[in-house]
Amino acid sequence: MAAKKYTKKQHKINIDDIDPNALEVLETLQENGFKAYLVGGSVRDLLLGYAPKDYDISTDALPEEVRDIFPSCFIVGKRFRLAHVRINRKVYEVSTFRKGDNEDDTLIYNDNEWGTEEEDVKRRDFTVNGLFYDNQKQVIIDYVGGVEDAKKNLLRCIGNPYIRFKQDPVRMIRLLKFRARFGLVPDEEMLEALFALRTEVLKSSPARLLEEFLRMLESGASVAFLKNLQEHGFLQTLLPNLAPYFETPVEQTIYNYLHVVDRLITAERKRPPRRSVLVACLIYPILQERLHEIYQRAPKKVHLGKIHQEANDLTIDLFNPVLRITKKILAEAVGIMQTQYRFTPLQKKKKLVCKIPNTPNFGCCLKFFMLRTLLEPGLTDLYNEWHYYYEKHKKNNPREDKPRKRNGRRRKDS
Ligand code: ATP
Ligand code: MG
Questions:
Q1: How far apart are CA 188 and CA 53, in angstroms?
Q2: From the CA of 52, how far away is ligand 2's center (Å)?
């Protein structure tokens, strides 16, 4: 099928809005005789008027050929093999054109069969995600009708949604994510497939589901996303032990936390908090209720070790049946929640001493405390005091408490 081409005048993407490093990767591939386009989320974001978070590049070069061109490149992935090119500490994903079978509804375990550029976009999930941007001609190449759908604010599957969701049920979570993030309206057939195939997500890898879930918490549209999950029965499927709390008053407190985070990311353009802080937003309100129930009549001081244990057990219980939180996020989130009881102990103390503990990533604990002050302004003076002592502590111990840098870009599966 011939592709439709949209000129700059029609798509209105300004090339100056594109990350120069992404353009450099495209140009280097092109200078070496390969085809290369911007594809996926970045083209969608630019077309819809959002700033892309990251850039994916599609090419006819094989992963090994990409590696030979870029000294800073390494090949990652098994299910989906592709090249990571690192420039100025940012990672650009370069994937080779590949084909998929949009008629076969069996679960995809491995997606490494090379194909043409047209085949490459047709195996993608939604039409708005199936567009190429050609930097040389500054045109959008559209094999799937994504530009027209974007204009109509429509989210539509490439191919038959029943087949595409069975092939890869994570696409259903992605549907809810794009609906939440961009307010795109899913077409009717897709919504029917979503309803019918909801429990298929349990066949997907927990790591991929967790990744999509956490990315949404970081997206600035976490409230809308969770409401979407609830509305379509996915909260119950993905987080069966957490879902019942959304039928109780604690739901509102969880939404209040997430709302504050969304606002910081969107209105104040702050970087998303670490994932452990986001997990704490979901669990801490429930932990607070639980500790209150257990210890409200406790005559003595409650040991922080006990709180740590409760926080740990609760987080595992609420997250793990399907998504399985990673050990690292778990440890950090539990540390954050426990430390809140250092800031505001269950039993009020006469005089609180702001002694900065050795808790790893104490900055994250304080960050979560800051979120609490936005919901409970009465805590602000106390927060400021801890913040002051922490800044002083950092000056005296410059090497401590630097959260470890994320190692490049997290892998997702496509
Ligand atoms: P985000 O802004 O959250 O990164 P994205 O659309 O860029 O959203 P990625 O996971 O970065 O999502 O994937 C890049 C592109 O790869 C998508 O835009 C889409 O074209 C394709 N893709 C990703 N996941 C799938 C999938 N499960 N099935 C088919 N295509 C996919
Ligand atoms: Mg992306």
A1: 29
A2: 8
Q: Measured between alpha carbons, how far is 177 from 212 in angstroms, rounded to an integer?
A: 8
Residues 6+ apart with CB under 8 A from 337: 280, 283, 284, 287, 307, 311, 315, 368
Nearest ligand by distance to the CA of 98: 1
Phi, psi of 87 (to 5 degrees): -135, 130
The verdict on whether 125 is a catalytic residue reads yes
Neighbours of 23 (CB within 10 A): 15
Q: Distance (Å, rounded) from C-alpha 390 to C-alpha 397?
A: 10
Please, what's the b/e burial string for 298-321 (b: 16 or more CB within 10 A of its CB; e: otherwise)?
eeeebeeeebbebbbebbeebbee
Alpha helices in 1-59 (DSSP H): 8-11, 20-31, 41-48
pTM of the model: 0.89
Active site residue 313: no
Tens of pLDDT, residue by residue over 325-359, are 999 999 999 999 999 999 998 877 667 778 887 77
| 126: DSSP letter | B
Mean pLDDT of the 261-273 span: 92
pLDDT band for 145, please (50, 70, 90 cuts): very high
Q: From the CB of 410, is ligand 1 less than 6 Å away? A: no
Reply yes or no on whether 381 is catalytic: no
- Reading the block at residue 192, the tokens are 């029917």
Q: Ligand 1: does its nearest atom lie under 6 Å from the Cβ of 41?
A: yes
The amino acid that residue 63 corresponds to is P
- Each residue of 176-208: pLDDT tens digit? 999 999 999 999 999 999 999 999 999 999 999
The full length of the chain comes to 414
Cα of 168 to ligand 1 centre, how many Å? 12
The answer to which of 232-241, 252-261, 326-335, 399-408 has the lowest mean pLDDT is: 399-408
Supply the angle between the helices 275-295 and 206-217 in degrees, to the nearest 10: 90
Distance 362 CA to ligand 2 centre (A): 30
Q: Any idea which ligand is nearest the CA of 44?
A: 1
